[in-house]
Amino acid sequence: IGHPEIFPLVFTTKTQEIFNCRVDEDVTEENCFKLIKKEDIIQDLKTRATISDFHPVKKVVLEYPGEELLVVFDAKFQYGQNFYFVASEEAKENLLKPPETAEEKDDDKEEENREETPEIHPYKPPVHKPWVSLGSEKEVEEESVKDTVTKIKHMISRVRRKFGAPVTFTDKNASHVKDSYVECTSYQDKTFSIKMLEKDVGVQMVPKVREASTQTKWTYPKNAATQYFPRQLSNEEKEESLSSEKLKEFLTSVHLRMEIALQQNEIMNAFFDDWKALAEDESSSGGKPDVYLKAYQSFTDLRYLKDRTISCICWHPTIYGTIAVSARAWLSYEEQVNLFDKSLLQQSVILFWSFFDPIHPQLMLECPEDIYCFQFRPSDPNVIAGGCINGQVVLWDISQHEEKLQNAKTVADGIKVTAVNMVNASVLNILQYIYMSPSLMQVQQSSTEPPLVRYCAVSSIQNSHKKPVTDIHWLPDYFEDNRMGATFENRAEICVQLVTCSPDCSILFWDIPATKLPEQPSSEKVEEEEIFCMPPDVPDTFKHLDLCWKPLIKINLHKSDTTTEYNPVRISLKELHYHYKTSEKVQSLDTLEVPAKDNPYTDMSTPSSKNLKVLENISTDFFVGTEDGEIVYSNWKMEIDSDSAKPHTQKYTIHTETINTLQRSPFFKDIVLSVGGRNFAIWKEGVTNGPILQSSCSAGRYTAGQWSLTRPGVFFIGREDGNIDIWDLLRKTHEPSHFQNISESMITFISPWIASPKQHFLAVSDDLGVLHVLEICQTLSHPSRNE
Amino acid sequence: AEVEETLKRIQAHKGVIATIVVNAEGIPIRTTLDNSTTVQYAGLLHQLIMKARSTVRDIDPQNDLTFLRIRSKKHEIMVAPDKEYLLIAIQNPCE
Predict the structure, then answer these.
(1) Of residues A233, A247, A266, nearest to B85 (C-beta)
(2) Which of A133, A188, A377, B87 could form a disulfide with B80 if both were Cys (CB 3.0 to 4.6 A apart)?
(3) Which residues of A604-613 are buried (b: 16+ CB within 10 A; e: fewer)?
């Protein structure tokens, strides 16, 4: 209780005996202190362990610093037990000493005092400590109320006599007063106001702003124009000034400067950017690896092109995206021999395809027989001439359908009939005709069927070739030849003449008389209607020629030493450059002459033939490729003097099989490409000992070839296995620079075309009747510099 | 005449496309081009020469324009001015 150093203990008798603190013998009330040695206690603890009375305080005992422990007899059980054990030295001393002193001193004191003092700590009166401030002064100060300002004392005094004056009260009605409210208003007493003598003022300058608006008067606008024309001197004035002295002086002084400048330019182009030019060459010669022909479209028709092979392709010269193909039936050799015995189950046609409608052909031209080759007329793309398998030449006029072809976007619905070219030649000769009833084919009006155009003229059978017409060309429009063989300038600028060749050893020149406006249309029409019963829909452009058309000139090709004849398959004239749009001035022109017989014509006069001047410079040389693989270079100039009756010809045998292509380069007029059999060759006119380039024999047969229209060194060769070889002479001359497979069957014809500056197409046809249109990639179509 | 000969000589140079002689008012006197083009060239170049000449003289009054060459992508136009006349030549420089 209370004192932590006091531990009450129970001493058993045994313990008391051991330690000599028996009650009432050793330890009495008066002499209650007993000092026991610590060692004894420890020993007792060891011997008696838990039974020892000191066990509860074992720890304290062990820790006790001193030697002797104090045990006090507690007679009054103040601490609960009969003994209590004092644990600290201090307490021991306190207990021992003061009570002893107290005992000594106050022996006389009462026993209570003695008992109390050893139990309680000696009472110490509180020592006066200095006050430690803990911060409460501040709070005290804050809480206290003090006068911050010294109180102002006012003393108000008034004159005494004013006090106590009698007061009178009056009544005033509240409503009389404004607001029913009377107050004693405060007023500013001047005596108490402080005058401000100095003031801090800021000043800002601001422009005076004023908003104003105006309205303009809106008069209606009027268009005003001025017409002017440049001042020009009349001729006399010009003459006058030209002869003036001043001009002479001027020129003498000036021309030197001018010549220097001109010469400078001639010597060198000062602004030529070599660096840029180098870069351009680099890009083209480095070459993209992916030179190829991109498949653009392919056309085929199941009805008309079944079991047929395409014999010729022609692009429409003016209408974009239109291409015509002619089909030819597959004939074996025996059938070809017995040409007239076969009976065609299918009508042979020329089909017109348009890019915009790959499924339906746009137009169909009916042919009397299979067409081997055909061409558009350069001056008038509505006229097409074709050569048949039986040797006839056929003409079509599609001017009715021209608009339709131009508008061919989707399936046509109906035919727009444009004004039919009702042009009849006024000059008509009475010639022999063979009257044949043409098979009537109605022009189909349904929207799914392409319109069928019947041919409007066919040459007479007697006077045509005996064998299939294998090549047909329109002669350029700036010359035409008459039956005498001299060429004349063609003022009309329309192509009127054709040349055809055929393996029957002949080359025929055909003439289409110039069409003139009819002077007596009605009578002629009546006349014609009597003679012919033509179906009403067919344009009668060439009606006069129908079935009575005869060639103008016929050339027979004879071999020089033997009497055998050549069988020309392809012909290439020198002047076969067509100008489709406008005629350009051509420097070199040829004259023609004809050997052999010419047909007896009665006055077949071309109009204005007398006024035309004879052109001297046209070369009459031409190349002919024959069936046997020979290239013949000949001249059809008619020798007026009969000394040298035979025209000088040269022949070359390079190819082993039939020549299938003979074409002039579009860039060089004297370079010719010939393709036949297993190789091809490039010839130059004037080089007579052989081709300038000849390819080696290749594995497959070459079946078609064409020069590229844009790059002078590039040409395309088609093969038997459906591949196209692209040869680029500037890169490699011993093998094709690129080849590409187009179809599985033999390539029959290739035709390149430039549709727009960016799109160059190559039309390729194969044996199965499929027309592939491929897009030529940039590297193949754009020439590099100085190519 | 001499005039003819000189003009022919200039025209015969390599690459020369056209030659025009213009009087002081800008009216062409002699030309090898067609009329409309000539008139256009004469009018435009006349103004240009006036401008060029005034420029040169503004900078230095003692100076005067002797020759003007305009090089364009396609060809070069050369003008030789005088007090009363202009000689214009258009040449295609060879590369």
Answers:
(1) A247
(2) B87
(3) bebeeeeebe
